[in-house]
Amino acid sequence: MLSKEQYVKISVLSHQGLSIRSIARQMGCSRSTIRRHLKLQAQRQPLVYGRARSTRGSLCLSRPTCASA
User: Fold this and answer.
1) What is the DSSP annotation of 3-56?
2) What is the residue extent of each domain of the chain?
3) Global confidence as pTM
4) Which of 48, 47, 3 is nearest to 27 (CA)?
């Protein structure tokens, strides 16, 4: 199991543009371990609370076509 420092180093090396193979060589672990970490990291999305606001159906007074309605 990799330590937190190793996970951070994998992320940094990936953001620097290194290939999975070169990251695996530097870290001394398999390519599948690096791939798995990067895949899990890519799946982590920031949580969005609430709904995104839609512009459809909203009252628009700035455009002349909307104001005449």
Assistant:
1) -HHHHHHHHHHHHTT--HHHHHHHHTS-HHHHHHHHHHHHH------SPPPP-T
2) 4-43
3) 0.61
4) 3
Contacts 24+ apart (CB under 8 A), 1-7: 2/29, 2/33, 2/37, 7/37
42 half-sphere exposure, CB direction, 13 A CA radius: 8
User: In Å, how far are 5, 19, 23 from 9, measured between CA atoms?
Assistant: 6, 13, 9
- What is the tens place of the pLDDT at every residue in 13-54? 999 999 999 999 999 999 999 999 998 888 885 545 556 555
10 Cβ contact partners less than 8 Å away, ≥ 6 residues apart? 2, 23, 27, 34, 37, 38
Looking at residue 63, the DSSP 8-state letter turns out to be: S
| Secondary structure (3-state) at 66 | helix
